[in-house]
Amino acid sequence: MSSLGSMENLKPLLAEAQALLPAAVSLRRDIHAHPELGLDLPRTQAAVLKALDGLGLEVTTGSSLSSVVAVLDSGQPGPTVLLRGDMDALPMPEDTGLDFASTVPGAMHACGHDAHVAMLAGAATLLHSHEDDLTGRVVFMFQPGEEGLHGARYMIDEGVLDVAGAVDVAFAIHQSPNFPSGMMATRGGTIMASADEIYIDVVGRGGHASMPHQALDPIPIACEIVLAIQSMVTRRIDIFDPAVVTVAHINAGTTTNVIPERASIHGTVRAISSRTRELVHNEVRQLATGIASAHGATADVQITSGFPVTVNDASIAEWTRGVATRLIGAEHVMELPSPIMGAEDFSYVLERVPGAMVFLGTCPEGVELSHVAPCHSNRMRLNESAMATGIALYAAMALARSSAA
Question: Which of 304, 334, 355 corresponds to the end of one domain?
Answer without folding.
Answer: 304
